[in-house]
Amino acid sequence: MSSYYDVDAILTDSQKLPCTFHIDVPGLGYLEGNAGDTVKSGTKIDLPMWLGTMLAMATGNNSGSPEVVTLEFPAPLQQRVINALRADPKTVDLRAQAPHFYALGSKIMELFDDPDVLDTLVDTYRQRASEIADHAHNPRGALGEGAEFLRGLDESERQLFKAAHEGPKAVKAWTQDLKKND
Fold first, then answer.
1. Which of 81, 92, 110, 155 sits a CA distance of 20 to 30 A from 149?
2. Of 72, 88, 122, at which residue does a domain stop?
3. Which parts of the sequence belong to the DNA replication complex GINS protein PSF3 N-terminal domain (predicted)?
C-alpha cells in the first residue's frame, strides 16, 4: 500500500493512457491545446492515468447516459511489448517503456481484466528476478554483457538488485559482529 505522498505512486499515476471520448465535453478543449473549446465525441487524447480513470468512471447527468471516455492500454503494455516480453523478457528495456513498469502494470490490471497480460507480467518478473539475482551476486557480469540488462531495470527491479547485492554483505557483517561479541 502506498501513501498519499509516495513519489513512485504519483509518477505511476501520471503515466499517459489513450482515452476516447464518447460525448462532447464543453470547456475541456485545453486537453487538446484548444483552451475553451469543446472536446468532441470520438476524440482520442492521451491523459494521465489519474484523470483518465476518473473520467472513465464518470457518466453523464442521466443514469442511461454513455460513459464519458473509454481507456486503452498504455504504450508500455500494448501488444507489441507484451509479445516481446513473451519472446524473451530479459531483452526488453523496461525502464525505456516506463520507469515504474510493474507498478503501471498493477494499476492497469485493476482497470482491465486481461489474464494473458497478467500472466505475461508475472512470468516476466519471475524470469528477470533470477537474472537480477545472478548479476547482483556476480559483479563481473554486471560490468560486462549484463550492463545493458541492468540499465533497463524498472524501479522495483533496481530495488531488488540493491537488496540482493547488499544482503550478503549485511549478513557477513552481522555474523562477524556476533563472533566479536561472543
1. 110
2. 72
3. 5-57
Q: Are 106 and 117 part of one and the same domain?
A: yes
The arithmetic mean of pLDDT across residues 81-109, rounded, is: 94
Distance, C-alpha 122 to centroid of its chain = 13
Give the whole-angstrom CA distance, residue 67 versus residue 15.
22
**Grid cell listed for 54:** 476518473
| Contact by Cβ (8 Å): 74, 15 | yes
Q: Under DSSP, is residue 76 helix (H, G, I), strand (E, B) or coil?
A: helix
Does the pLDDT value for residue 114 go beyond 90?
yes
Please state whether the predicted TM-score (pTM) of the whole model is above 0.90. Answer: no
pLDDT of residue 94: 95
Kindly give, in sequence order, each residue whose CB lies less than 8 Å from that of residue 50, ignoring residues fewer than 6 positions away: 13, 14
Scanning the structure block, which residue is given the C-alpha cell 550492463? Answer: 147
Which grid coordinates are listed for 119? Answer: 500472466
